[in-house]
Structures are given as C-alpha cells and as structure tokens.
Design a protein that fits this description.
This protein is mainly alpha-helical. The protein has five helices and two strands; from the N terminus they run αββαααα. Helix 2 packs across helix 3. It is globular. The site of zinc ion has 8 residues, from helix 2.
Length: 132
C-alpha cells in the first residue's frame, strides 16, 4: 500500500512565497507560460515548476531552479527529462544550469528564516513599479 507522506509544514511559508515569486516573475517576463509563451490574465493560471527536484532543500527556493509554466507544459517537462533540461538550459544558459544542478546535489542545512527574509525582499522588489 502506498503511504502518503505529508509535506512538512515548516516549508510551507517559503513555498508559498517562492511560488508567488516565480509565477509573478513569469507574468513580468512573458505575460504567461515561460515555455509555450501562452498568455495568461493572472499569475494564478501558472504553476511554479521546479527544475531540480524540490525535495532537495539546498535549491528548493533558488530562483534559477524554477519557472512559471502552464499546467500542460509543467506536466510535459516533468515527464520528459531531456525536454526539461533543454528548456532550463535555454532559460538560464549552461553555466547557471550546472550551478543549480550541482548545488541541488550538495546537501545543505537550510536556514528557513534566512530564505524567508530573502524571498520577502524579492517579492517586494517584483511588486515595485518600474522606475525606468
Ligand atoms: Zn506552456
């Protein structure tokens, strides 16, 4: 029988902030899905799709480790590893892709409060009107 493991709630505040950040970033960048470029009216129509598995805490809230995708693209890349890699390499460049991959494979004791401070700052930055 499959055992359903509950996500530890201590990650939830950061997960919520991170998801909001990634999805609103996608709306700013392309106005919708970062892969198929389908326009969306609201960030809520997007998923926060991870590159390296979010079970690896060292990169769970790293901005280069996720993109805002429509549900179709999210499902597609999660089932096609090569396409997923190709998408994120195109998005980040080979160097940044490798950096996140190596960081994700390097277990770290994460400071959730510190990540939260960072994510709060980034959310504020994204919500600020552009001055230029
Ligand atoms: Zn899409």
């Amino acid at each position: 029988m499959e055992r359903v493991k509950k996500r530890p709630s201590k990650n939830k505040p950061n997960d919520d902030l991170f998801s909001y950040l990634i999805r609103t970033r996608a709306m700013k960048r392309v106005g919708g899905c970062e892969r198929c470029l389908t326009a969306k009216i609201n960030y809520k129509a997007l998923h926060c799709a991870h590159n390296q598995p979010r079970g690896r805490l060292s990169t769970r809230w790293h901005e280069d480790n996720a993109a805002g995708l429509c549900p179709g693209c999210h499902r597609y890349i999660d089932n096609n590893h090569d396409e997923k890699r190709e998408f994120f390499v195109k998005l980040l460049g080979e160097d940044r892709y490798e950096y996140v991959r190596i960081q994700s494979l390097t277990p770290q004791k994460v400071d959730r409060e510190l990540w939260k401070l960072y994510l709060d700052l980034k959310v504020k930055e994204y919500e600020m009107p552009t001055l230029r």
